[in-house]
Protein: Mitochondrial integral membrane protein-like protein
Amino acid sequence: MVSLWGTNKDDDHNAQGSNSSRDAGNDAQPQSRRSHDEPNERTRLIQQRHPPPNSDGYLDPDDPAVSPYNLWTVRFLRYLTVLFLVVSFLWWVLLLVSIFVSPPGLHSRGSGFFDFSYTTLTVGNLLVALIFFAAPSKAMRISLAIISAFLLIDMIIILTVGRIRIEEGWVGIASVIWASVMAIWCTLVDRVVAWGKREEEERLTGRPETRRTLKEWSAVLIATIILIIYIIITILMTSTLIIRARDASLKAPGERYYVDGEKYQVHLNCLGNVTYTGKKRDPTVILEAGEEPSEFDFEHWAYSAYQNGTISRYCYWDRPGYAWSDNAPSPHSAGMSADALSEALAQAGEEGPWILVSAGTGSLVSRIFSVRHGADIEGILMIDPFHEDLLHRIGSPGRGFVLWGWGVLSPLGIERLGGALFKGRTREDRVYGRNAYQSGKFIKAQLQENLIADSLTKNEVVSSNTIQDKKVPLAIVSSGVKCRTDREWERKQRDLTHLTNELVGWDVVQKAPHQVWKTYEGRKTMERRLDDLVKFNQ
Structure:
């Protein structure tokens, strides 16, 4: 027992000594060690929240390996999106070419700018989806969903409104449907990528990442801005399509006739009765408008002449792309327009003899028509006609580029929408009136004239001069304003007076513009010369 107690005392003594030694040792530690335990100016305020790789099995969220591309589903969607972009781009190129040269089976009786613009929007949506593929966001999905909704409305309109469906054909319908499907596809792809990104973050970092880097925020901002612009464009295109549906309800006077192998329709209307002077049938006047549709003022003058008894019957038509007529395949020349008029007259049962009354560029069509129907032509009246030597003005490359640019923008309908909302423009104004120049069909017709004015059309007109019947009575009424301000124009007007040997008269109406009939003196002079032509062969 003594020994046991003694042993315990020794142990107590040793323990106390050991504790004393440790305390002494602690007191003997250098001050530098304590400084590491106590915070100072160099201590990290925020310790690393995520340990390095392999310490707990997770990666840092900023590690490049944390990517939605790790999922085969996401990669497959990306490959499909690339494929859709390639297909859309090839279709875009084909539509671009068809504006200038119509491939067989791809002719649109509409402008061709409609389907081209929708395909451009499709390519834009797919590019945004691919460029910002790894940075999905809710803002992008909402924007794409809005675009999809408006494109679905467009698809419904083009399928339900008969006139638009006929004009745009399968090419336009396919372009709108493809644009709708691709917008929905981009929305779903963005949603799947967002899901894949979250899945990979949970698998590789232990939790979904809620923060974004500056690069990601910049990508989301840029993509959202671009898509907002696309939304505005889609809204404008939808509004323009609604206006077109409204304009399609305006009934055309007369009839539309299929021409050129039933590729498109042209509008023709005839007024008055067939009359005879003795046994001879009185001539029917055929109106050929200039740079505007016949129904815009020009036909009104002819109707006044009809009411006054100067003429007993007249017909007017719309060249391809004007007013109620469809666009023709490209290229399209003045001679092709003359052939289309011949077909329409034959289908309508109209017979000669004819007196041709034309204005501006329409005089080129009338001159070609006259040599192809030489036996039936009893007179030619040209109102400030366009000479073939001046066709380089119509066919300038700069003018063609501007027309193409306006055509591409025409589906937005900014001018038409502004006129309808703020200026009270009616259907008549947009179809054949003062705002007809804003339609895609009209712009396409002008572009077609530009492309071959100084080549094919000029050759046709020059060739017609060599076989022109020199005994046909001819009258010319010119603009005094145009002749005073353009001496070359005046010389060419004088040159046209030698087109035949039977010049009934050449009048220069001093205060009249290029559209001579817009002045009272001009209308009176035109009617007097028309009366001279009617009486010439009586």
